[in-house]
Amino acid sequence: MTLPLGTLLKPVFPLSADAFPRMAAERFGVQEDMDKTWLTFEPVARTLVDSFYMTLDHPRHESLVPRLEATPPAVRGIAYEGAGMGLMLLDSLFPYKKRLPAFLHGPGAPYRCLVYIGAGLVLPRVPVSPGRFLARQDPFLRWLVMDGYGFYEGFFSWRDIVEQHRTPRRIRGYAARAFDQGLGRSLWFSTGASVERIIATISGFPPRRQGDLWGGIGLACAYAAGVMDRSAVVTLLQEAGRYRADLATGTAVASVFREQSGLPAPHTDLACEVVWERGAASVAAIAHEAGRRLGRAGTEPAYERWRQEIRAAWLDTPVPASTGKELGT
Predict the structure, then answer these.
(1) Do residues 150 and 109 make contact, with C-beta atoms less than 8 angstroms apart?
(2) Other beta carbons less than 10 A from residue 112's beta carbon
């Protein structure tokens, strides 16, 4: 009897949702709020892990897609992210198949941003050069692969990457900034979405890296899981200090992710209302308009120029003085 590929690869690529709260407790000690937060994070973590192994066992589109679509709408995007992980791993083992590109240009297209992030979650564990892999991807969205890379390393290599403030040696140029954006997202989960722990962790990094870390926090706050109430998001915005505009950029990117998937979420609207004083659909429209202003010129990648345009739009948008926007410059 032939065992499913997912079963065979589990010892090689072990991943368990149960490890998430355990690692958080090891880093910060037992915290009363962690158990409550984990109840919200658990569906996200389990969906990611389960869809990853499911994809290894059912990589063909006609078998995989119905299973992904059967996922509850609230976490369906996460399921597609897990599919990106599985297809990336399969392509690294059997490169002649090219499953990931076919998925990105086929049924995975509505979730392509999250599929790219999922591919990046696997990249640190496979013998593939990040630079060479990025060169073959969409010129605009390729940096989301590095976002996924940063998330993985931030979560699973805490001592080296977070406590020692290191970036993997083979990550250079703008890829290092995209890496930090994913690293920031990982801190949202690692800290249990605690404003105090987020602030304490990010403040230890060099100032030149903190803006991208806050961008990752903004994306996670608006997309990942509805943990914070309005007052907590207000506090998060205030505590971001001079990096408020970077936080706002992350929430805008999250609004685009939600729009592309066609699955709105109340916590995305909440984050956008606090940070931008408007709902997620309006913020996504601002992000799209920022993209139309890019043109073709520029020394930085188009993805970063897009983020800069979004940042400028937030700084130019009238927002009540209670946000202290003047400190976001």
Answers:
(1) no
(2) 18
Integer Cα distance of 217 and 234 in angstroms: 13
The pLDDT value recorded for residue 12 is: 67
- Residue 236's closest CA among 217, 216, 253? 217
> Residues 6 or more apart from 156 whose CB is under 8 A from it?
none
Query: Are 111 and 82 a contacting pair, CB within 8 Å?
Result: no
Q: Which residue has the tokens 């915290």?
A: 31
pTM attached to this predicted model: 0.91
* Distance linking the first and last C-alpha atoms of the chain: 62
Q: Which of 26-35, 36-45, 148-157, 263-272 has the lowest mean pLDDT?
A: 26-35
Q: Which helix (H) or strand (E) holds 6?
A: helix 5-9
Say how far apart CA 77 and CA 113 lie, in whole Å. Answer: 10
Q: How far apart are CA 178 and CA 142, in angstroms?
A: 10
* The pLDDT value given to residue 11: 66
State pLDDT tens for residues 83-103.
999 999 999 988 888 899 999
Q: Does 198 or 9 have the greater pLDDT score?
A: 198
What are the residue ranges of helices labelled H in the chain?
Answer: 5-9, 19-28, 32-57, 61-69, 76-93, 99-104, 112-122, 130-135, 143-156, 174-190, 195-203, 207-223, 230-239, 244-261, 266-276, 280-292, 302-316
Cα 290 from Cα 309, distance rounded (Å):
5
What tokens does 92 get? Answer: 């690294």
Burial bucket for residue 72 (CB in 10 Å: 0-12, 13-18, 19+): exposed
How far is the CA of 276 from the CAs of 127, 225, 233, 248, 322, in angstroms? 41, 19, 12, 7, 12
